């Protein structure tokens, strides 16, 4: 039987008096990829920020691995197994690839040395760049590094915001293939925010469509791909 890893219910959140998210419900089962789709400004990034504790919800519940996440400090959220890769990637430009990876491992108690090698095995382009500074990397390498750094915390769920932003289609396809591999071989669950709907639905098990801060569809990825009316109305293709 599938295990419910993340359950969001009735979530209301925003930055001021007027909420951005209106009673959002969402579920992620262990070892699955759920795509969060919708137009610019729909509230997708705000949803990820609220789940990871960067934005405080006004109402609703966020349950991760059976425990309530509301009010839990961000670093404790990571220790519980939930890592967030924000839009824009957020690597440290002045540090080397290896130092950036080790930063991701600081959240764990154990020595992280072996895990750095595991990340290089997964992300071959980073292995040849281990002594390069963040600012010397290409856009694709930066995205790999941001994901690799998050994986150093050994998450069960990765919140990934717009990994394809600014990347060539070939690099985007490589990142989607990597997510598929992580899901299939390590059981990682991913909540994937994407503007690139086709790419996202090519790897996702489920898709949730958000419009003006409300969930307007939540279905199997295959059903969303096949629903022409929904695609035209909310997904622009
Ligand atoms: P995008 O793909 O453009 O990032 P999104 O669906 O991720 O879109 P959000 O970034 O969550 O949308 O933004 C939702 C709304 O919240 C927008 O109206 C945006 O202007 C507003 N917003 C986002 N971040 C902040 C902030 N830090 N302070 C105030 N308002 C914000």
UniProtKB/TrEMBL annotation:
The keyword Ubl conjugation is assigned to this record: no
GO biological process: L-amino acid transport
Key word Cytoplasm present: no
GO molecular function: ATP binding; ATP hydrolysis activity; branched-chain amino acid transmembrane transporter activity
Signal sequence, renumbered to the chain: none
ABC transporter domain location: 6-237
Record keywords: Amino-acid transport, ATP-binding, Nucleotide-binding, Transport
Domain of life: Bacteria
PANTHER family named among the record's database cross-references: HIGH-AFFINITY BRANCHED-CHAIN AMINO ACID TRANSPORT ATP-BINDING PROTEIN LIVF (PTHR43820)
Family per record: Belongs to the ABC transporter superfamily.
Name by which UniProt lists this protein: Branched-chain amino acid transport system ATP-binding protein
């Amino acid at each position: 039987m599938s295990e419910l890893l993340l359950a969001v219910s009735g979530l209301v959140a925003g930055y001021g008096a007027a909420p951005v998210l209106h009673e959002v419900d969402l579920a992620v089962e262990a070892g699955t990829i759920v795509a969060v789709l919708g137009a610019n400004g729909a509230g997708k990034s705000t949803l990820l920020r609220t789940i990871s504790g960067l934005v405080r919800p006004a109402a609703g519940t966020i349950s991760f691995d059976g425990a309530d996440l509301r009010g839990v400090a961000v670093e404790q959220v990571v220790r519980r197994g939930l890592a967030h890769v924000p839009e824009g990637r957020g690597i440290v430009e002045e540090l080397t690839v290896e130092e950036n990876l080790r930063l991701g491992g600081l959240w764990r108690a154990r020595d992280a040395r072996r895990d750095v090698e595991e990340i290089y095995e997964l992300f071959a382009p980073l292995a040849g760049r281990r002594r390069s500074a963040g600012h010397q990397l290409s856009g694709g390498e930066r995205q790999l590094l941001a994901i690799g750094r998050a994986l150093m915390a050994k998450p069960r769920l990765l919140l990934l915001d717009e990994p394809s932003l600014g990347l060539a289609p070939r690099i985007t396809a490589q990142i989607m293939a990597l997510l598929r591999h992580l899901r299939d071989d390590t059981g990682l669950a991913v909540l994937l925010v994407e503007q690139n709907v086709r790419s996202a639905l090519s790897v996702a098990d489920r898709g949730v469509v958000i419009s003006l801060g409300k969930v307007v569809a939540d279905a199997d990825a295959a059903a969303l791909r096949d629903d022409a009316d929904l695609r035209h109305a909310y997904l622009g293709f």
